[in-house]
Amino acid sequence: MWRVPGHLCVRFAGRSKLSGPWSRPAAFMSTLLIHQPQYAWLKELGLREENEGVYNGSWGGRGEVITTYCPANNEPIARVRQASVADYEETVKKAREAWRIWADIPAPKRGEVVRQIGDALREKIQVLGSLVSLEMGKILVEGVGEVQEYVDICDYAVGLSRMIGGPILPSERPGHALIEQWNPVGLVGIITAFNFPVAVYGWNNAIAMICGNVCLWKGAPTTSLISVAVTKIIAKVLEDNKLPGAICSLTCGGADIGTAMAKDERVNLLSFTGSTQVGKQVALMVQERFGRSLLELGGNNAIIANVLYGPLHTKQAVNMFLGAVEAAKKEGGTVVYGGKVMDRPGNYVEPTIVTGLAHNASIAHTETFAPILYVFKFKNEDEVFAWNNEVKQGLSSSIFTKDLGRIFRWLGPKGSDCGIVNVNIPTSGAEIGGAFGGEKHTGGGRESGSDAWKQYMRRSTCTINYSKDLPLAQGIKFQ
Asked: What's the pLDDT at 307?
């Protein structure tokens, strides 16, 4: 959360992973962008004027029809028919039926299917990245980079498919073998947010699949076209391999579908990416049924403001930006740069720098999801480390220093308490080989690399007696 050059500390109002209500103007154009010649490439992804938002081996959807908008100009792109609760019930049943087939396929063979998914994404990387830019609002290179991340995690998962497994442990009893057996949990529900509408699903999907699970995805309503386009690419691979499409199911929808997933005992693991506020509700619903959850919630990371960025995702986000600027002023902050909405089409705001706030100002501890940089001066290392750790979120942090001792103190038990702790690099971005996630109000979940695969499996400790005797552990004998 901190950048430390010349006794200057900065905190950035990090972008959350919220998948909640959104605010859009009514469609004010008679023609959707998908019908305009410059956006003809959308049809390369199989998208149409109205798209079905449910996939479970076949496409459908009986819920409301929503229109998605381009945040760069607030013009309507296309429409998606969302899932009804009945659609959800049907999809869960089909997904669990598909699991009985998928779980029997050897892990390396599952890896081969994931490899093909990665290759199919490679073929569409430019056009799919363009859709991410169009519907989410990222600059194009970041949109393409997000698809590349899914491709990379597919490559990672392919290798992992030949390495997952538990140890053989020494038994204290003669003629006995002690092993750990790892099996798929079954159905993995994946709820993703608008800010990473491809990569977060990819982290979960590729790893869950090679572990032997089937997946049910609910993306953010405001990026429904991306969810549909990605699922169409995956569905084609499953079809070509004569596998049930319900292995990678999709139910586009809102809070009703998300709540159903959280409360459903048939969803063996629920991976939720979103705000801390909504994550608390999800965690309680899952825990109430003694279910398993993987939470990747809010962040509040430090980073130097970069003027190369796209629009905010919605008009609601613009209002949140303005509210944060006013709150910072009320708490004693001074806006030394930016602070205004740009006078142009779309949801563009000025990158903003605020000074003069106390380190514990409430607005500086609030995840606004906007380009606002709060700058603080500190006296010494102990003080700034403590400021880093007083923030409730614990996703990512960074320090810039050439002091070797300071580096290892920053990485040590009294240093940063975040899940991602960097040195001499920004807080954004993460390599797929390391587990991604955070501590405290960020949820504690870990996705992607390292041993994150274990979260998608259940572990059994197995003792096998191959002797003719029946000895007890700890040397116990019944006399």
From this structure: 58
Name 354's Cβ contacts closer than 8 Å, sequence gap at least 6.
325, 328, 333, 334, 335, 336, 372, 373, 374, 375
Instruction: Give the position of tokens 């103007």.
Output: 25
- Say which amino acid occupies 135: E
| Confidence (pLDDT) at 7 | 35
Task: Single out the residue of 271, 335, 333 nearest to residue 305, CA to CA.
Answer: 335
Q: Give the pLDDT confidence score for residue 12 in this predicted structure.
A: 41
Nearest to 260 by CA among 99, 81, 82: 82
Sign of the dihedral defined by the CA atoms of residues 412, 413, 417, 418, in that order: positive
Task: For Cα atoms 174, 179, 183, give the angle at the middle one, nearest 5 degrees.
Answer: 155
pTM across the whole model: 0.87
Q: Is the torsion defined by CA of 306, 310, 315, 317 positive or negative?
A: negative
In the predicted model, residues of the chain with pLDDT beneath 70 are: 1-30, 301-305, 307
SS3 readout for the chain: CCCCCCCEEEEECCCCCCCCCCCCCCCCCCCCHHHCHHHHHHHHHCCCCEEECEECCCEECCCCEEEEEECCCCEEEEEEECCCHHHHHHHHHHHHHHHHHHCCCCHHHHHHHHHHHHHHHHHCHHHHHHHHHHHHCCCHHHHHHHHHHHHHHHHHHHHHCCCCCCCEECCCCCCEEEEEEEEECCEEEEECCCCCCCHHHHHHHHHHHHCCCEEEEECCHHHHHHHHHHHHHHHHHHHHCCCCHHHEEEECCCHHHHHHHHHCCCCCEEEEECCHHHHHHHHHHHHHCCCEEEEECCCCCCCCCCCCCCCCCCHHHHHHHHHHHHHHHHCCCEEEECCCECCCCCCCECCEEEECCCCCCHHHHCCCCCCEEEEEECCCHHHHHHHHHHCCEECEEEECCCCHHHHHHHHCCCCCCCCEEEECCCCCCCCCCCEECCEECCCCCCEECCCHHHHHEEEEEEEEECCCCCCCHHHCCCC
Per-residue pLDDT of 420-435, as tens digits, reads 999 998 887 788 888 8
What is the rounded CA–CA span in Å between residue 104 and residue 475?
Answer: 39
Burial 167-205 (b: 16+ CB within 10 A, else e): eeeebebeebebeeebebbbbbbbbbbbbbbbbbbbbbb
Q: Which pLDDT score, from 0 to 100, does residue 263 have?
A: 98
